[in-house]
TrEMBL record, chain A:
Gene3D superfamilies: P-loop containing nucleotide triphosphate hydrolases (3.40.50.300). CDD domains: ABC_Carb_Monos_I (cd03216). SMART domains: AAA. InterPro entries: AAA+_ATPase (IPR003593), ABC_carbohydrate_import_ATPase (IPR050107), ABC_transporter-like_ATP-bd (IPR003439), ABC_transporter-like_CS (IPR017871), P-loop_NTPase (IPR027417). This is Sugar ABC transporter ATP-binding protein. Residues 12-250 form the ABC transporter domain. Pfam families: ABC_tran. It comes from the Bacteria. The keyword Cytoplasm does not apply. The keyword ATP-binding applies. Keywords: ATP-binding, Nucleotide-binding. GO terms for molecular function: ATP binding; ATP hydrolysis activity.
TrEMBL record, chain B:
Residues 1-23 are annotated as: Disordered. Signal peptide: none annotated. Its main location: membrane. This is ABC transporter permease. Keywords: Cell membrane, Membrane, Transmembrane, Transmembrane helix. Pfam families: BPD_transp_2. The chain crosses the membrane at residues 36-56, 77-104, 116-142, 149-170, 190-207, 275-303, 323-341.
Length: 256, 350
């Protein structure tokens, strides 16, 4: 499973990744690959290690052991900034949006355009933000509104659009549908489908409710107790099979 | 194919609270919105209203001499409040700025009279010493993870104690060598006001038009999110602690020159008075203690309102005793307004 063919290096590969926090082992031995332009669902119950894996992949945590390969080359992610400079960007559950700031300031958060006087180039940022959101088909009242005024789906869309704008090649979406209504969720799934159609980014969607994300994903990986225990193309599996696996695992863990 | 369909559907007909607002609000509605949106507008009206009220009751309120008084009762607190706003916006508070305010002129005095430092260098040195105290505050809060309320409470007494010990709690005269600078640094009629306006304008631009300001808002508004976006929130906080203490030191020096004496009780017995006035000014000016929002211009107007009240009561012959009643009510009312106007704004004004 972890032999990487030299000819078609995946966009992202993870080999024997382990991470512990004190006495707690969050990740035991994770092997994972994400092909170029692929949408991969990383599912697993609460506490399976999804968040830890995400935080390692985006440069927030360092793994204890294991390798991360980007286009077949090993990288050591030193920080979030560093990971981002390599094209890996995460959209967190909390979205890292600042309610008090406008949409366009959020779009440019920590990547603001400044003029020669070191003052913010608001007009440029506003224009680019509007163009980019239009291009991605994200519809909001205005880029001038504070993010607090937007709906959950719109906020998520802004966060995704921000990552895409920052030229992310690998997008990590952390529970993009959590706490979201059906319509809102559809908005995000359409956005992901749209990105997939363009083929410029590879996406990992982290979700505990795999049924919701099943249709947009090319492949599903199941993370259980810090290991990937299941890896199939969505075409070859079903929501039912996944459910059986999770339930079975739950029964087993309760029996011991 | 799917691109175009997605474009048509995404966010198209969402019922969420942020769906496109009605496009044709009435003119009154617009005026009201503009009023609500500009945090400073409310407090500006109050400031003008008070001005007219006291002027109507006593013409001397707008006399040259009293305007100078007003400016001098506003400026030092507005300068301190400028720093306080930056700190509150990034989610921290500095209780120690008042004792830095009293320590700074003593440091200047020690440097000039005991070590023969050039007065202008001594002034800069005292402000830098203020920055160092701010750095200490910041490091204690950010690195040692002590809540800023507690960290700066400790610093308040520590700095106050250093000042009292080194000065033996005796007032000192402005160093003779520095007297030539007195006019520039607070003694001339409008000197404090001019410094205040420069500082307020500068930091207003910093807060609203610079990356530093944006990151300050982000740090206070969503600390985790800001750091996830790669903002070094610790650095932002430490920087703002340094700004606040430096401004406190500078305001202390201006006040010492203005009253022409270096007084160990300039900040009250507990060293807290200037800080309390500055925080009041910031809050009245529309800064939320929860972080994420605030304006420097609002704090200046808040300081002006407080000065008007203090000065006006005095002038129309009302005892100073009810002043605190008014001040207390003003703080509570402006906080209530803040909370609810913000909610109104957030609700998309429908």
């Amino acid at each position: 499973m972890n032999t990487v063919p030299v000819t078609t290096a995946p966009a992202l590969a993870v080999e024997h990744l382990a991470k512990g926090f004190g006495a707690v082992t969050a990740l035991r031995d994770v092997n994972l690959r994400l092909e170029k332009g692929e949408v991969l669902a990383l599912v697993g119950d609460n506490g399976a290690g999804k968040s830890t894996l995400l935080k390692i992949l985006c440069g927030f945590h360092r793994p204890d052991t294991g390798r991360i390969l980007l286009d077949g080359e090993e990288v050591v992610l030193k920080s979030v900034d560093h990971a981002r400079s390599l094209g890996i960007d995460a959209v967190y559950q909390d979205l890292a949006l600042v309610n008090e700031l406008t949409v366009y300031h959020n779009m440019f958060l920590n990547r603001e355009r400044v003029g020669r006087t070191r003052l913010l180039h608001n007009r440029t940022m506003r224009r680019i933000a509007q163009e980019h959101l239009d291009e991605m088909g994200v519809n909001i009242p205005s880029v001038d509104v504070e993010v607090a005024k937007l709906s959950g789906g719109q906020r998520q869309a802004i966060a995704v659009a921000r990552s895409v704008y920052s030229e992310a090649r690998i997008l990590l979406l952390d529970e993009p549908l959590a706490a979201m209504g059906a319509k809102e969720g559809a908005l995000i799934l359409d956005l992901v489908g749209d990105l997939k159609a363009r083929g410029e980014v590879s996406i990992i969607i982290i979700a505990h409710n795999y049924a919701q994300v099943f249709e947009v994903c090319d492949r599903v990986n199941l993370l259980q107790h810090g290991e990937i225990t299941f890896d199939k193309r969505t075409a070859e599996t079903s929501v039912g099979e996944l459910t059986d696996l999770v339930v079975e695992e739950y029964r087993r863990s309760r029996a011991t | 194919m799917s691109e175009t369909t997605a474009r048509d559907t995404i966010g198209g007909d969402l019922p969420g609270p942020g769906s496109p607002p009605q496009r044709q609000p009435g003119r009154l509605r617009l005026a009201f919105d503009a009023f609500v949106v500009r945090r400073e507008a409310t407090i500006f009206i109050v400031a003008v209203g008070l001005l007219l009220y006291f002027w109507a009751n006593n013409e001397d309120f707008l006399s040259h001499n009293n305007l100078v008084n007003l400016s001098q009762q506003t400026a030092p607190y507005a300068i301190i409040a400028t720093g306080v706003v930056l700190l509150l916006v990034c989610g921290e508070i500095d209780l120690s700025v008042g004792s830095v305010f009293v320590l700074a002129p003593f440091l200047m005095h020690y440097m000039v009279d005991f070590y023969g430092v050039y007065p202008i260098v001594a002034i800069i040195g005292s402000v830098l010493a203020g920055a160092a105290i701010g750095l200490a505050n910041g490091l204690i809060v950010v690195v040692l993870r002590v809540p800023s309320f507690v960290a700066t409470l400790g610093m308040l007494f520590l700095v106050l104690g250093i000042m009292l010990t080194t000065s033996h709690a005796y007032p000192a005269a402005i160093p003779e060598a520095a007297e030539g600078l007195a006019g520039w640094f607070g003694q001339a009629d409008w000197s404090e006001l001019i410094w205040c306006l420069i500082i307020v304008a500068f930091f207003h631009i910093v807060l609203t038009r610079s990356r530093w300001g944006l990151h300050t808002v982000a740090t206070g508004g969503n600390p985790l999110g800001a750091s996830e976006a790669g903002i070094r929130t610790g650095r932002i906080k430490i920087g703002n602690f340094m700004v606040t203490s430096s401004l406190g030191a500078f305001a202390g020096i201006l006040e010492a020159f203005r009253v022409n004496s270096i007084d160990p009780s300039a900040a009250g017995a507990d060293g807290a008075a200037p800080m309390l006035v500055a925080v009041s000014a910031a809050v009245i000016g529309g800064t939320a203690l929860a972080g994420g929002s605030g304006t420097v211009v609002g704090a200046l107007l808040g300081a002006l309102v407080l000065a008007e009240l203090r000065n006006g009561f005095n002038l129309i012959g009302i005892s100073a005793n009810p002043f605190n009643i008014i001040l207390g009510l003003a703080i509570i009312i402006s906080m209530v307004l803040n909370v609810h106007l913000t909610r109104l704004r957030r609700a998309g004004r429908r």
